[in-house]
């Protein structure tokens, strides 16, 4: 009888995992905490604590269901502290004849495991069927298409799943209600407080362990609020459905100076770890619409994030790697501004986005796309630098979802594969969608001068620098027309203003282009809540 070691990764904490089905009685299920997985980028301590606490609780759930479990704790003396070698050590320890594992969340691990498929101790890789689509499904959809627009993929997903469909037509007669979902938050709007989960002995022990081993990383462990069991994740799902979903659509693009979560679900981390399934959250949201408790624009907007965007970026990742990671279509080379690590900037919107990230390991998708991401785009920050930062600081950041969002949508570094135009904007956008500017010393209505919002001159300077690449884009003709009608004097003043700002911008040295490829990285496997 075969004796497999079934390796369960930290983002695979589901009893529906394919590798846990139909196991022989002598199978050993292994979960491994290894220091290499927490350090190849300086992951936020809350992110590490979330994953380790969820892993330990899941291991106990497996034991209660009769599985034979070997759990490698971070401080076990025999732990090799690297995922592949630790799995191989455990397989030899238990006299296993193969290692079974479901597709991991990062290409580097997938590649390392595939290289061992025919080794003396072979690795057997299984497809992850917890998603609506597989990489092969996406590849079939993408075959022969000149561009990979999410909207068309999303419509096909609706047809396949039947979600929000009335026969062959979309509910309400429109596929996409995004136009209804762009309102700023009115002053004084009450926002429901998120659930706070009780920390049991296991969670408290993990928080202490992370503080000891990873306390030097960016981010605070105080106020840790993430769900670490399926039961807690279901509490978060119910809270979103009952208290947040009705207003989610209307305010999903709003930004608040004081409220970090607004009406967003914060379910992405639980989804990505396997504590929730995409089907159950989409079906729960759809039920609210059919039963008249949530409007269609909110429900459609949420389902689009999960059924459409989440599945779409995963398809892009798995069908375009590893070359996708090397994309830098705009030739950006600047290092990451130092204030991304400490929040020490006079620009209020950036300061608050970074402070909220530090405190919560979270910022919603508009903060990521149109505040920190927009700033990095306008300053030509190197894709490797920003991608590593997003991967490090957000609890929901697995590379398969983080990389396409950051490199493709935020930085337009894939040359327009995902987005038809860069998501660049001046300070006017932030002023319209947030209350940051009233607390900021900079004036969003000024383009030049000591009190001018830096976003304004950076925006026009970015357009000038990249005119050769972007001016022929049909969606940018109007803005380049406005630029061409400006006087040379005004353009020179904006250019000088942006240049002076960039000269003063302290940044770490830009990463070499080879960094982040293959064996140069040590390793970690980890939407709605990455840049939209």
TrEMBL record:
Q: Which residues form the signal peptide?
A: none
Q: Which InterPro entries match?
A: Crypto/Photolyase_FAD-like_sf, PhrB-like, Rossmann-like_a/b/a_fold, UV-DNA_repair_photolyase
Q: Specify where the region named Disordered lies, as residue ranges.
A: 512-532
Identify the Gene3D superfamilies for this entry.
1.25.40.80, Deoxyribodipyrimidine photolyase-related, DNA Cyclobutane Dipyrimidine Photolyase, subunit A, domain 3, HUPs
In its UniProt entry, what is this protein called?
A: Cryptochrome/photolyase family protein
According to its UniProt entry, this protein's organism is Halomonas marinisediminis
